[in-house]
Amino acid sequence: MSSLRLPGLIDIHVHLREPGATHKEDWDSGTAAALAGGFTLVLAMPNTQPPITDEASLQEVLLLASQKARCDYAQYVGAGADNAGHVAALASRAAGLKMYLDQTYGPLRLDDMRLWMNHLESWPPDRPIVAHAEGRTLAAMILMAQLFNRPIHLAHVSRAEEILLIRRAKEKGIPVTCEVCPHHLFLSQEDIPSIGEGRSEVRPRLNTPEDQRCLWENLEVIDCFATDHAPHTLSEKDGQNPPPGFPGLETILPLLLTAVHQEKLSLDDLITRLYTNPRKIFNLPEQPNTWIEVDIDQEWTIQAQEFFTRCAWTPFEGWSVKGRVERVILRGQVAYENGRVLAHPGYGRSIREIGLSLSSGA
């Protein structure tokens, strides 16, 4: 056994499905899955039912999280067609502003670039903005970052043309950062037959092997790894209209540790993209007395029946991996140990709440 201590990991992109779809996931099950995966802090997306777009919906979701979350958290607010003014007032309490510029469900898609500009002008310049932007929309958002001279974080980059464009933008000093998801690093269109058509639905879609190779070849351009944990039940995925999304909180670390063993990246690369850069880009506080312990040499087979996520499946079912979380310490308390989540619902803290002192261990 080779036990290694790492910082508590940070996932900047998760969907916890509460309110509105708790049959898939909620703050309890989702944050239990996070701890089992080595994450001590998660940032939750706003496209819930209803979406988090105003004071009332933010208060509601933060109350639910305060009662159920087992790890620390922050909640994004969503950019809508008519909320640029009042949503900006919530910036200090939010993980950031999420702008949906491509495919999404509900009222959050922004098809008109004038709406983008309204939000870029209104949202405080020192607070994060995350954009779901693909292809030419991504190029347009990079232009916006340059025109408004403000940082933009680009979610789940998946294609060769996108990562190469981001490389050029960074070389020109344009203030953009980006994340890549494990399913775009480890899966491609060639895996669809073995996973199944419906179960392979995800946005952005699974890329080509060429896209996948280009992501690995441009690792230095990728600022963060993020799961885009998006749980749906198997009955939904196997239905007539399968919703897009994969669970990912409990599989990303063993997949990346396996890649470390294969010398595709280093352990420092992993820590930089799952801890150092997320803290820097999103201005996240330190979690005192917090770390994880990992057996980096343990070989095991991914089986969703062992997971804490409520959706109870994974596209990586049956994969052999090397590296497993043994123990998670969150603010001085054992939160997870050898397959058991020990942190109780409500132990997690909102890292954006005014007056919160993580150093108190409360």
The whole-angstrom Rg is 19 Å
Structural class: alpha/beta
Total strand segments: 14
Report the mean per-residue pLDDT as an integer.
95
How much strand? 15-25%
Largest sheet, if any?
Answer: 6 strands, parallel
Q: What level of helicity do the residues show?
A: 25-40%
Distance from N terminus to C terminus (CA atoms, Å) equals 34 Å
Distinct helical segment count: 12
SSE string: EEHEHEEHEHEHEHEHHHEHHHEEEE
**Anisotropy-based shape:** globular
Instruction: Give me the side-by-side strand order of the main sheet.
Output: 5-6-7-8-9-10
- Stretches with pLDDT under 50, minimum 5 residues: 355-362
Characterization of the model:
The protein is α/β, with parallel strands linked by helices and 362 residues long. It contains twelve helices and 14 strands. It has helices spanning 27-36, 55-68, 84-88, 113-122, 136-148, 160-171, 182-186, 192-195, 209-217, 234-237, 252-261, 267-282; strands at 3-7, 9-14, 39-44, 72-75, 77-78, 97-100, 129-132, 152-154, 176-180, 224-225, 291-301, 320-330, 333-337, 340-341. A six-stranded parallel sheet has the order 5-6-7-8-9-10. Strands 1-11-12-13-14 form a five-stranded antiparallel sheet, covered by helices on one side. A three-stranded parallel sheet has the order 2-3-4. Helix 1 (27-36) links the parallel strand 2 (9-14) and strand 3 (39-44). Helix 6 packs parallel to helix 9. The two termini are 34 Å apart. 49% of the residues are buried. Mean pLDDT is 95; it is low at 355-362.
